[in-house]
Amino acid sequence: MAADTQPMPMQGLPRPAPEHRTAQAHSSSRLQKEHTPARTTPLALELVELELALDLSDIADRGFSDAVRDAAREIGGEYLFDLPASGLVEDAQRIAVVCLSRDQGGRFGLVLLSSNGDRVEAVEADESTLGLVQFARAFVSVLEKL
User: Fold this and answer.
1) Domain boundaries, the chain
2) Residue ranges of region Disordered (predicted)?
Protein backbone atom coordinates (compact mmCIF):
# COMPACT_ATOMS: atom_id res chain seq x y z
CA MET A 1 0.00 0.00 0.00
CA ALA A 2 2.93 2.36 0.68
CA ALA A 3 3.94 2.04 -2.97
CA ASP A 4 0.57 3.47 -4.03
CA THR A 5 0.93 6.68 -2.01
CA GLN A 6 1.99 9.85 -3.76
CA PRO A 7 3.84 12.66 -1.97
CA MET A 8 1.75 15.71 -1.34
CA PRO A 9 3.24 18.99 -2.60
CA MET A 10 4.56 21.23 0.18
CA GLN A 11 3.17 24.69 0.55
CA GLY A 12 5.28 27.41 2.13
CA LEU A 13 8.67 27.01 3.72
CA PRO A 14 9.53 23.87 5.64
CA ARG A 15 9.69 24.29 9.40
CA PRO A 16 12.23 22.52 11.57
CA ALA A 17 10.94 19.55 13.47
CA PRO A 18 10.10 20.31 17.11
CA GLU A 19 12.69 19.20 19.63
CA HIS A 20 11.84 16.11 21.63
CA ARG A 21 13.69 16.07 24.93
CA THR A 22 14.61 12.84 26.54
CA ALA A 23 16.24 12.43 29.91
CA GLN A 24 19.60 12.01 28.15
CA ALA A 25 19.07 15.05 25.92
CA HIS A 26 18.05 17.14 28.92
CA SER A 27 21.11 16.18 30.94
CA SER A 28 23.45 16.96 28.07
CA SER A 29 21.75 20.17 26.95
CA ARG A 30 24.44 22.31 28.56
CA LEU A 31 27.14 20.44 26.67
CA GLN A 32 25.20 20.81 23.42
CA LYS A 33 24.84 24.56 23.93
CA GLU A 34 28.57 24.92 24.53
CA HIS A 35 29.41 23.20 21.24
CA THR A 36 26.60 24.61 19.11
CA PRO A 37 27.65 27.71 17.17
CA ALA A 38 25.68 30.82 18.11
CA ARG A 39 23.19 32.01 15.56
CA THR A 40 24.28 35.37 14.30
CA THR A 41 22.68 38.01 12.19
CA PRO A 42 24.08 38.00 8.65
CA LEU A 43 26.78 40.63 8.28
CA ALA A 44 24.97 42.23 5.35
CA LEU A 45 21.91 42.88 7.55
CA GLU A 46 24.04 44.46 10.28
CA LEU A 47 25.67 46.70 7.67
CA VAL A 48 22.25 47.82 6.40
CA GLU A 49 21.21 48.63 9.98
CA LEU A 50 24.40 50.63 10.45
CA GLU A 51 23.90 52.50 7.20
CA LEU A 52 20.30 53.32 8.12
CA ALA A 53 21.45 54.66 11.49
CA LEU A 54 23.89 57.04 9.78
CA ASP A 55 22.66 60.52 8.95
CA LEU A 56 24.48 62.80 6.51
CA SER A 57 23.23 65.88 8.33
CA ASP A 58 24.88 64.58 11.52
CA ILE A 59 28.15 64.22 9.62
CA ALA A 60 27.89 67.79 8.32
CA ASP A 61 27.00 69.16 11.78
CA ARG A 62 29.16 67.09 14.13
CA GLY A 63 31.74 65.38 11.97
CA PHE A 64 32.26 61.91 10.55
CA SER A 65 33.70 60.27 13.69
CA ASP A 66 30.93 61.41 16.04
CA ALA A 67 28.17 60.49 13.59
CA VAL A 68 29.60 56.99 13.05
CA ARG A 69 30.16 56.56 16.81
CA ASP A 70 26.49 57.38 17.52
CA ALA A 71 25.22 55.15 14.69
CA ALA A 72 27.34 52.23 15.93
CA ARG A 73 26.06 52.70 19.48
CA GLU A 74 22.47 52.83 18.19
CA ILE A 75 22.76 49.35 16.64
CA GLY A 76 24.73 47.85 19.55
CA GLY A 77 28.14 48.09 17.87
CA GLU A 78 31.33 49.90 18.80
CA TYR A 79 33.10 52.63 16.88
CA LEU A 80 36.80 51.74 16.89
CA PHE A 81 38.62 54.31 14.76
CA ASP A 82 38.61 56.20 11.49
CA LEU A 83 41.36 57.31 9.19
CA PRO A 84 41.90 58.89 5.78
CA ALA A 85 41.10 56.49 2.94
CA SER A 86 44.47 57.29 1.34
CA GLY A 87 43.66 55.41 -1.85
CA LEU A 88 42.55 52.18 -0.10
CA VAL A 89 39.04 52.67 -1.42
CA GLU A 90 38.19 54.47 -4.62
CA ASP A 91 36.05 57.62 -4.25
CA ALA A 92 36.32 57.76 -0.44
CA GLN A 93 37.94 60.35 1.78
CA ARG A 94 37.57 58.59 5.17
CA ILE A 95 37.07 55.05 6.46
CA ALA A 96 35.68 54.23 9.90
CA VAL A 97 35.91 50.76 11.40
CA VAL A 98 33.01 49.53 13.52
CA CYS A 99 32.95 46.36 15.60
CA LEU A 100 29.47 44.95 15.05
CA SER A 101 29.97 42.02 17.43
CA ARG A 102 32.80 40.60 19.52
CA ASP A 103 31.47 37.05 19.13
CA GLN A 104 33.56 34.45 17.32
CA GLY A 105 36.63 36.62 16.88
CA GLY A 106 34.69 39.77 16.04
CA ARG A 107 32.58 41.00 13.15
CA PHE A 108 33.60 44.26 11.59
CA GLY A 109 32.13 46.72 9.14
CA LEU A 110 33.59 49.72 7.40
CA VAL A 111 31.86 53.05 6.92
CA LEU A 112 33.04 55.01 3.90
CA LEU A 113 32.60 58.74 3.46
CA SER A 114 32.58 59.66 -0.22
CA SER A 115 35.28 61.95 -1.56
CA ASN A 116 32.69 64.73 -1.92
CA GLY A 117 31.31 64.14 1.57
CA ASP A 118 27.82 63.66 0.16
CA ARG A 119 27.40 59.91 0.72
CA VAL A 120 28.13 57.33 3.39
CA GLU A 121 28.16 53.60 2.85
CA ALA A 122 28.58 50.67 5.24
CA VAL A 123 30.50 47.81 3.61
CA GLU A 124 32.36 44.60 4.33
CA ALA A 125 36.11 44.58 4.06
CA ASP A 126 37.54 43.44 0.75
CA GLU A 127 41.08 42.57 -0.30
CA SER A 128 42.20 46.20 -0.22
CA THR A 129 40.85 46.84 3.30
CA LEU A 130 41.41 43.45 4.91
CA GLY A 131 44.44 44.84 6.74
CA LEU A 132 42.15 47.31 8.54
CA VAL A 133 40.02 44.47 9.86
CA GLN A 134 43.11 42.57 11.02
CA PHE A 135 44.29 45.71 12.80
CA ALA A 136 40.78 46.15 14.29
CA ARG A 137 40.88 42.59 15.68
CA ALA A 138 44.20 43.33 17.35
CA PHE A 139 42.81 46.65 18.62
CA VAL A 140 39.78 44.92 20.19
CA SER A 141 42.03 42.28 21.72
CA VAL A 142 44.07 45.01 23.44
CA LEU A 143 40.89 46.74 24.64
CA GLU A 144 39.62 43.49 26.15
CA LYS A 145 42.84 43.07 28.12
CA LEU A 146 42.69 46.57 29.63
Assistant:
1) 43-145
2) 1-38
